[in-house]
Amino acid sequence: MGNIKIVGVVGSGQMGSGIAQLAAVHGLNVWLLDTDPDAPSRATKSISNSIHRLISKGHLTKASNSLSLSSFCCFPAIGAEALRRLRCTSNLEDLSAADVVIEAIVESEDVKKKLFNELDLITKRSAILASNTSSISITRLASATARPSQVIGMHFMNPPPIMKLVEIVRGADTSDETFNVTKALAERFGKTVICSQDYSGFIVNRILMPMINEAFFALYTGVATKEDIDTGMKLGTNHPMGPLELADFIGLDICLSIMRVLHAGLGDSKYAPCPLLIRYVDAGRVGRKRGIGVYNYAKVTEPVKPSSRL
């Protein structure tokens, strides 16, 4: 279990692609799975561009034993080395040889349980099944498998190549060996690890999401404009992003899903989602990925002014 050579990642969105990038850059062979037939080309392009940006900003230096700026002085060599380790697929069977599989799919307990059941059937018996869930019970996800001792939460922050933290969550039956291997993998990726018990929302989102929800209530009840709410938190508490801006970055649909998990799992009315958050999600205003959320990110083209007559 401890000798990790192949990592499977399920889901090629921003989180999944970022996790796959980390594994490839740090010398591991990666299978990135997505059922969308257009996903492989998008993911490869996204990862290639991300590596390029990290190198150009000086962030990717001696990231692993196999990649360093001192040994590969240009992007084509570094990018090619990492991308050679990355293979994309839509066939779950291709994950059968993986030592660790990390799922990064939609934040739905039912969908994740179905996937974990399928992974349990096709992966080798020694494989660890990890979830990037930001709020759902690891114990309940593990119950869909015949290997609950090898199921663990491995919650990366967004975007994974940049953010320094990984939140590891042990289910009721997660073994010490599974925990130690997962922690070592996160540290190999250059991350700082914090450990949470298996309570709804874990550590980060137990604190963050109620703050975001309260910002929506402040907007909903007319306490202040969205701009002033965000400016207040940025300049008043030294947050790099305001809570409403951050919600757009995360995705309002994800924020709503997590609030519902907190509300159901902790049973306290203070976790009830703000009606405005629900309304925005119902309207499809889910944030940056859709071009509109609390803020409008659509590019506005200024009309061409008619030339003045002399």
UniProtKB/TrEMBL annotation:
Residues 7-198 form the 3-hydroxyacyl-CoA dehydrogenase NAD binding domain. It comes from the Eukaryota. InterPro entries: 3-OHacyl-CoA_DH, 3-OHacyl-CoA_DH_CS, 3-OHacyl-CoA_DH_NAD-bd, 3HC_DH_C, 6-PGluconate_DH-like_C_sf, 6PGD_dom2, NAD(P)-bd_dom_sf. Residues 201-297 form the 3-hydroxyacyl-CoA dehydrogenase C-terminal domain. GO terms for molecular function: enoyl-CoA hydratase activity; NAD+ binding; oxidoreductase activity, acting on the CH-OH group of donors, NAD or NADP as acceptor. CoA binds at S50, K57, S134. Pathway: Lipid metabolism; fatty acid beta-oxidation. The record marks H155 as: Important for catalytic activity. The keyword Repeat does not apply. Pfam families: 3HCDH, 3HCDH_N. NAD(+) binds at G11, S12, G13, Q14, M15, G16, D34, E107, K112, S134, N158, K289. GO terms for biological process: fatty acid metabolic process. It catalyses: a (3S)-3-hydroxyacyl-CoA = a (2E)-enoyl-CoA + H2O; a 4-saturated-(3S)-3-hydroxyacyl-CoA = a (3E)-enoyl-CoA + H2O. Keywords: NAD, Oxidoreductase. Belongs to the 3-hydroxyacyl-CoA dehydrogenase family. This is 3-hydroxyacyl-CoA dehydrogenase. It comes from Parasponia andersonii.
